[in-house]
Amino acid sequence: MIHVVIVDDETLVRSGLSLIVSSAPDIEVVATCGGGDALETVARLRPRVVLLDVRMPDVDGLTVLSSLMELPEPPAVAMLTTFDTDEYIGTALRAGAGGFLLKDTDPEQLVHAVRVLAAGGRILSPAVTDTVIAGYLDSGPDRQTAARLATMTTRELDVLALLGEGLSNADIAARLFLSTGTVKDHISAILAKLGTSNRVQAAVFAHQAGLLAGDHSSPSPGRDNR
């Protein structure tokens, strides 16, 4: 069972999201609350997924996110917004958010998003994907991208490309005929080499590097292909 906490300043929004998410047989909304109660609620209930409003009057969603990421076992957090060009998208992703969702996301997609987050994947509403990728594409020089790619093995590049497609650890393992433990080890190495703190940043880097187009030819990776 996937336990979820929904954090939003509007009671009606919390109720609506809770009804949608809890309609799935494998998902249970264990609590809903405003931003001021978020840290205590999450620390006490330890959900796997938190749906967090990015704009709240009592406490800023980014402040709540930073506090959640400091917990011993932080949950996967998807930021909720009503704007597909929200100015906080890049900041939230860099701070550790596992995704960004519009509040009017289709119910089936919302349930799917919770499952992806719980499985260790990342999720972005289609409406905000272009905004996020464009922001990252404009943020780093090509030489830096090439230098980071050059430190990776061929297998790490394979894993990074699939991570960029939004696959979970289990899906990557099945695609590459690896154990999930091996995939986790590769992802840890990838994050260290990229200097990033979460899967979303690594996934967008895969877009930036052109890995989703299958171009692994430049720069050349290391020799260890395990």
What does this protein structure show overall?
With 226 residues, the protein is of the alpha/beta class. The protein is built from eleven helices and six strands. The chain has helices at residues 11-21, 38-45, 61-69, 89-94, 107-118, 126-137, 142-150, 154-164, 169-176, 180-194, 199-209; strands at 2-7, 27-33, 49-53, 76-81, 99-102, 123-124. A six-stranded parallel β-sheet has the order 2-1-3-4-5-6, with helices on both faces. Helix 1 (11-21) links the parallel strand 1 (2-7) and strand 2 (27-33). It is globular, with a radius of gyration of 18 Å. It starts with a strand and ends in a 17-residue tail after the last helix.
Describe, in short, the structure shown:
The protein has helices at 11-21, 38-45, 61-69, 89-94, 107-118, 126-137, 142-150, 154-164, 169-176, 180-194, 199-209; strands at 2-7, 27-33, 49-53, 76-81, 99-102, 123-124.
